[in-house]
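Entry 14. Ran structure prediction on the chain below.
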Amino acid sequence: MHPAPPCSPRRLRRQSGFVLMEASIALGVVVFLSLLVLKGSLLALSGNRWTVMQTLSDAYLTKETALSNRIPMSALQASPSPWPDRASDSPSYALQTVTLGVLPSGQPVQAQLTRFRTSETPPNSPDVSMVVWRLYSVLSYRAGDQSYVKTRTSLRTQ
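Output, structure tokens:
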């Protein structure tokens, strides 16, 4: 009886079939992992865009609050006021389109700014000689598919 050769043609065919199957499984695993990494990086970038939008809008509203605190009372109560009186002026609010900043992609970020003021002085009070105004700044903008509204108020007295 002759010993069987170490590598018979049948055995070679079976081994080459296993190599092809192992290569296919490995390729499938690599494709699956690369899709997971791609999804993770897209999620990280979308969260970064939201953070940039929040930072831009907060910075703009900080500037708006500073402006409302330093505007002279005479300019605030003048006929064309940056903050119209909600009760007596026509129109009762000032609406303008503003640029918050520029995204890293170079796209400018636009928003709608609405300003108005209300009187906080108690009516029919002879004891109060002070005039109190509440100034409102309302910022509305879009980030992706979502709409956002932020507001800041400040009190001014005279």
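The longest helix spans residues 9-70. Will compare against last week's run tomorrow.
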